[in-house]
Amino acid sequence: xxxxxxxxxxxxxxxxxxxxxxxxxxxxxxxxxxxxxxxxxxxxxxxxxxxxxxxxxxxxxxxxxxxxxxxxxxxxxxxxxxxxxxxxxxxxxxxxxxxxxxxxxxxxxxxxxxxxxxxxxxxxxxxxxxxxxxxxxxxxxxxxxxxxxxxxxxxxxxxxxxxxxxxxxxxxxxxxxxxxxxxxxxxxxxxxxxxxxxxxxxxxxxxxxxxxxxxxxxxxxxxxxxxxxxxxxxxxxxxxxxx
Length: 243
Hints:
It is a single chain. By secondary structure, this protein is an alpha/beta fold. The chain has one domain: TIM Barrel, CATH 3.20.20.140. The protein has seven helices and eleven strands. Helix 5 (about 150-160) links the parallel strand 6 (about 140-145) and strand 7 (about 165-170). Helix 1 crosses helix 2 (about 50-55). It is globular, with a radius of gyration of 17 Å. The relative contact order is 0.18.
């Protein structure tokens, strides 16, 4: 009997992000080995890594749909855009960012809204956080990298506002992929089909260890490696916003 469920991760980063070294091709291979049916690559303010992964996934090697996404820094905190055709620039309000994603037929997610270690986390949005519920399609109620009580608070927020919750790895390394998974009760190919399944999601949660050498953040390690010339960052296309 064919598999009818979908196994998805809606928040990951490739080497197109400033803080990851994972190649799109390696991410596709890893996702296939883990049994994912869908992988969203959501680099910071750019989509070229996700587009490269989608090209790889279209080749031989098994069924995997790469969702082209982006983690977008709005004035009101970070948002995820999924099913994008072009990058959404940072610096807009949350409502404007959401509108730009939905204009492309995409979905809008709220990642790690209460993580105090994120520079644009929901804690800094203050009273504006509640207003975000009106412009999003899902909340990341479990982020494998979230700090302390951020995930329980996100779950409470989602429940209070009637917004579906998902579990994401927020993977910046290949080893973090598969730590957590969102399982949906049917197949999907489009944003509308995914939206219709989110309220019935089953969440498999886990924790990622994303610090190396004591308390040295992965982002600093990546910057050192790139600074030593051992990896060349992906070229940023003209349509993508720059940090």
